Fold:
Amino acid sequence: MLMALLAGVLLILGFAIGMGVTGAPEGGMFGLMIATVLWLILALVSLSSGDQILLAASRATPVTHDVHPQLFNVVEEMKIAAGLPKMPKIYIINDPAPNAFATGRNPENASVAVTAGLLARLNRDELQGVIAHEISHIVHRDVLFVTLAGIMLGSIVLLSQVFLRGMFYSSMGSRRRYSSGGKGGGQAQLVLMLIAILAAVLAPIFAYVLYFALSRRREYLADAGAARLTRYPEGLASALEKIANDPSPQLASANKVTAPMYIANPFKKKGQMALSNLTSTHPPITERIKILRNLSQGASFKEYSDAFANVTKKRTVVPVAAMKKEDVPIRQPGAETTAKERAENQMRQVGDIMRRVNQFVFLTCACGLKLKIPPNFKGQTVKCPRCNKMHDLPRV
Structure:
């Protein structure tokens, strides 16, 4: 329904601009055709290479199993649990702010990107919850939904901007046109132009509201899918809590286009769990956490729907077709290191992840010391500062 409303806004805007430019209702059909063609062109470009554009804009770097074995193991687990036909490509964003997103046209061509800060701050159960959330986006085709909706939004904004700017440049010619052709004809043309201007101003605002509503709805569904895949809702709830309260600066590579793709709003204030509103790309994190922690009897879609209704007092976001009776028992948490151990390892882990992403060479000496060689090191050998043993550097 939200997608249909967005499409309706685009077509109405094209029709209104066509009437305003030509000064006749017949011109509306021409404007409608222009709007449709513009949307189709942008859709073809986005569906063919939109995922790579998003990954490049987010400064995501593809990584291998050696960089973070646990991440690859968790993604593989969730891929099997979700029944994906192919392992998603894995990317790391070299940023200390914890966050993640998924992209791709379909389950056969999907990618998961996580920040170095996320990997350093979450334990295995929490990381599994985040990855399950992103895998759910892929399974539910949310990436395709949001991409197509984003293209429609972009088309609406582009049409509006081109028309309104064109109005300023041709204002003198427009006045001459309205003053000719008789009083009645001039008034009719003026009315049509005013309608077009009003549509060009209001359409982007309404489209943004619809786009954000669609994005928030898909986030709830991905949370439901994650709880079902992991059978441990507390993992995702705890991860969202850590992400929301993390003191790191906001994600440097995020922008208005990529923000709705992330698991949590990358523009949040430090430690803030702001309530959602019409202009928010994500539901309130506090609300999402409460819903997940209300799942005490099971982790099925039906259980999530009941918890959603109890917390929000709203109609469920889960489709009726997914509300079948199924038994998804909640499992016990996995083994976890102590808080002290995690605090001691946290900064070292994030540093090592960033170094691997930036092509550092890691060598382990016989004395047990790990050497981290930057990519711009010019020598052929390096000496261990502990035992003075010389090591040859591997060259690609």
About this structure: Strands lie at 60-62, 89-93, 100-106, 109-115, 361-364, 370-373, 381-383, 390-392. Residues 270-276 have pLDDT under 50 and may be disordered. The chain has two domains: 1-343, 359-392.
